[in-house]
Amino acid sequence: MQASIEDMQYLQFPLPPVPFMNPYLGTMQYCYYPVIPFPMHDPDPVPAPDVIYQVWNSNLTHEFKRIWNLISQGGRLFASIDTEYPGTLYKSDKGRLDDPDYMYHLMRKNVNETNIIQLGLTLADLHGNRYTWEFNFSDFDIVHDRQDKDSVDFLMRQGVDFRKHKKDGIPSHEFARKCLEAGLLGNKLVVWVGFQILYDLGYFTKILTGKNLPDKFDTYMEFERDYFGDRVYDVKDMIREYNRSDSSRDSNPKLHGGLDKVAETLGIPRVAGKSHQAGSDSLLTYLTFLKLNDICNGEDVLGVADEVASGEDDIPEAEFVVPGVGESKLAVVGEDDILDKLGVAGEAAARDEREMGL
To answer: How many of the other CB atoms lie within 10 Å of CB of 340?
Structure first.
């Protein structure tokens, strides 16, 4: 069956100049080249709120165009993330959970020897708009890859289709390239949020570098600074601060347990999806982040009041906090520096030249 024009990724033009509307710039331009890589018109450039968009390899470009549209509007954005992976192979020594070096190397071994399954991303602005995607990867092979069987069985019960992931999933290197092109990384206007974010950032960084996590913790933190900047919050650590504060007394209960338990205690419903599905958990994590800030009644116990209230650039640095790993001040670098670190700057430039017919 012949594919319709809507199924084509690019329009092909004849040699004479042809006028066309650039969807990114909103201006009329002229094509002088036989083929112009030009995304098709998107009838729905802005996603719907509280809908979890399932992203596979077939619609990766389309969904990242939506993300690009949101980021290109400027202003403060919150990026809440969650990952699903095939469990941990090496279990923690509970007596060493406060040892930063031990916690990093434990995470590093688990992340390096397993492959990611899903990454959930919720983007939210200061006006209450929020949008959620669930990226489904092809990296994990349930037959051959290392895994914790109980964790994989649990994910299957939650609806993860590992055959579909292997067949239709996203190669992680393509996801990394799209993240860079969309301006999501190294962006000083993006505040990153997670719940027990250590492993989420570990898998994300492994994807972005295309390599195993480094031996040295300091080297790893350099990658974190490059990709995620100086505004990263772990809701689990925010809960510890909240429990020690006056805000947790009287009518506000102490908070304990995992994401589902904390959300239930705070009266936050799961508005879409299921527990332990990355998109749904990223959305619930963001709602929990907001609720914690609200119930502090203006007292900046969590250190996030300026982030939530302001869209300006001159807000103070946040503390990058990872459970058991301590705190570090982070800086922001530009996209060119990230491309250089990934070793794809030259490749990206060459691709752009090919696309322009140069």
So the answer is: 14
